[in-house]
Amino acid sequence: MSETVDVVLIGGGVMSATLGTLISELQPDWKIVVFERLSDVAQESSNAWNNAGTGHAALCELNYMPAAPDGSVDPAKAISINEQFQQSRQLWTTLMEEGVLHAPDTFINPTPHMTFVQGEKDVKYLRKRYEALKDQPLFAGIEYSEDSRVINQWAPLLMQKRVAGEPFAATRVPAGTDVDFGSVTRQLFDNLTAKGATLYTNREVRKLKRQKDGTWKLNFRDMLGKTPGSMNARFVFVGAGGWALKLLQASGIPEIKGYGCFPIGGQWLKTSNPAIVAQHHAKVYSQAAVGAPPMSVPHLDTRVVDGETSILFGPFATFTPKFLKHGHMLDLVTQVRFHNVFSMLKVAFTNFNLIKYLVSELAKTHKGKVESLREFVPTAKDEDWVLLNAGQRAQVMKGGKLQFGTEVIAHADGSIAGLLGASPGASTAVSIMLDLLNSCFPDRIAEWEPRLKQLIPSYGETLNDKPAEADKIVTETAEALHINR
């Protein structure tokens, strides 16, 4: 007879680590089991080199605030993303003060967030965006300039030997951060296992079936010995990146009908040359190319991983039918069902610009990628930069449209839920998992609320409409995490 546990988390990434941490704090008597198909946690999208490490707070990402057809800009989504990242900062601060997370510099470092654009059209847009954000409490301190001397002070690599005459502009927010989500994930899992959770690595969940008593039976296999096994769970979370779609389909829940995934990979150009690294301390985002998905917005990033500072540029899109870096070549095909095939075909026929963009990216050589880098860094030399493979993303397809956000799919009775999609992902993991708790455990939220307020002081509230409270909480977390206000 299979063992029955309270919670099973499938996938060893930051989403499972965050949900497991919240549940262990709210219901410490529950038995939690984690299954990870690779040899360690944080090896896919949560790995530091598989993502940009941006503490996504919409400080520099233009895709959260696109221009409307009439040229106007609405800050609502940017504010919402920032609100979500503030919840992550608050939870990390509390966990650090309680000894769960280590010193701030083991997972988060102050890194200004910048936006840099060229051409009259984009300069005009960026000016409007700045005007819409500068008086918002959560964007306090945002700066704007079209002066090359000022931008040179902010990010010297952008301005060296730049051809005069082309209009350009930049914004800068000193309060930005660089986050090592791999380190966050490992530290959270270390704490979970120390508190009694069981982590199984090299275990791949293959099937999920609802039992008569309401639990879920999970069939898994040992990836090394190929030995099968099973376990029953009262609640299951599928936080397995692109693998989540396949497992949710296997569960048979009706809520997954109509969904599909489109895989997009990426590569970075990386340099650790001290002379170059010393000239750049920022994450600089720009406009995406026509047809490019939001995850392919070009950016020049300071990264701090395992104590080493480097600079990444990209990402450059790649394509493979795998849903994970360590996935299967048939992933794209085996997801097809009668209920999603027509939606997927519509996506294929209505996203010609995306296909054209992917083809052009795949055709780029190393030299071609460095040429793209020179639009940001005019002095870049081929020999200083090496290619690094980034993570694999599975973008959501639904209703004939390709979606670029994240979406929680939960069964009506709350016994199983999973996460699909990518951006903004890890940065808003806390907010996403809070929403999941509300959806799947509505009868317990009132009981859990006091502890949630201790963990996340702004839980249940928004900050941007309360300037004094926003300033207090943002300042407190900044001081605790040793980052800029």
Automatic annotation (TrEMBL):
* Gene Ontology molecular-function annotations: (S)-2-hydroxyglutarate dehydrogenase activity; L-malate dehydrogenase (quinone) activity
Q: What is its EC number?
A: 1.1.5.4
GO annotation, biological process: tricarboxylic acid cycle
Q: Which Gene3D superfamilies match?
A: D-Amino Acid Oxidase, subunit A, domain 2, FAD/NAD(P)-binding domain
Q: Give the matching InterPro entries.
A: FAD/NAD-bd_sf, MQO
Q: What class of enzyme is it?
A: oxidoreductase
Pathway involvement of the protein, from the record: Carbohydrate metabolism; tricarboxylic acid cycle; oxaloacetate from (S)-malate (quinone route): step 1/1
UniProt cross-references to Pfam families, sorted A to Z? Mqo (PF06039)
Q: Which UniProt keywords apply?
A: FAD, Flavoprotein, Oxidoreductase, Tricarboxylic acid cycle
What is catalyzed by this enzyme?
A: (S)-malate + a quinone = a quinol + oxaloacetate
Task: Give the protein's cofactors.
Answer: FAD
UniProt xrefs under PANTHER family = L-2-HYDROXYGLUTARATE DEHYDROGENASE, MITOCHONDRIAL
- Record family assignment: Belongs to the MQO family.
NCBIfam families annotated for this entry?
mal_quin_oxido, PRK05257.1-1, PRK05257.1-4, PRK05257.2-1, PRK05257.3-2, PRK13339.1
This protein's name = Probable malate:quinone oxidoreductase
Q: Which organism is it from?
A: Microbacterium mitrae
